[in-house]
Amino acid sequence: MRGIKVQKLHVKSSIIEKTGGVCAVCGRALVHSKVTIEHYIPKYHGGTDDERNLLSLCKNCNKSKGSRIVQAEEHYPFLKAVYCTEVNEYRTEWENGGEGNGNSKGK
Ligand SMILES: [Zn+2]
Q1: Are the beta carbons of 41 and 49 closer than 8 angstroms?
Q2: How remote is the CA of residue 19 from the centroid of ligand 1, in Å?
Q3: Residues paired with 56 in a beta bridge
Q4: Fewest CB atoms less than 10 Å from the CB: which of 18, 39, 57, 81?
Q5: CB within 8 A of 96, min separation 6: which ones?
Q6: Chain-wide mean pLDDT for the chain?
Q7: Does residue 105 lie in a domain region?
Q8: Confidence grade of residue 107 (pLDDT, cut at 50, 70, 90)
Q9: For residues 55 and 18, is the Cβ–Cβ distance under 8 A?
């Protein structure tokens, strides 16, 4: 499915822009080919590929987060404020079970 791959690359660039080209967690400059795309709400918890839910991290940081759900402001200091807002917006929708993820009543 080449078409999808191209689209993904495009998405990747716009996600990297969210942090101005650095890892959202540690602030290290990201090499485009080595960026890992992080799901803020992990797929495991019903997160989707919604762009608001995606962040760029370096490999180390991506590994260390696992499938926890964290506070965006605390965990992603290098995420620009406007995208931080988007992420929180997405999280609220997710908590309200917007997409029928079977997890509507959070803890
Ligand atoms: Zn990092």
Answers
A1: no
A2: 11
A3: 37
A4: 81
A5: 104
A6: 85
A7: no
A8: very low
A9: yes
Q: How far is the CA of 40 from the centre of ligand 1 (A)?
A: 14
Q: Out of 11-15, 50-54, 96-100, which region has the weakest mean confidence (pLDDT)?
A: 96-100
Residue 76 lies in a domain: yes
Domain count, the chain: 1
pLDDT digits (tens, 9 = 90+) for 45-96: 999 999 999 999 999 898 876 678 889 999 999 999 999 999 999 999 999 9
Residue 43 pLDDT exceeds 60? yes
> CA nearest 76: which of 34, 13, 15?
15
Gap from CA of 73 to ligand 1 centroid (Å): 15
Residues with CB under 5 A from ligand 1 (ion): 23, 25-26, 58, 61
- Tell me, in angstroms, the distance from the centre of ligand 1 to residue 100's CA: 32
User: 78: domain CATH number?
Assistant: 3.40.1800
Q: How far is the CA of 21 from the centre of ligand 1 (A)?
A: 11
Residue 104 lies in a domain: no
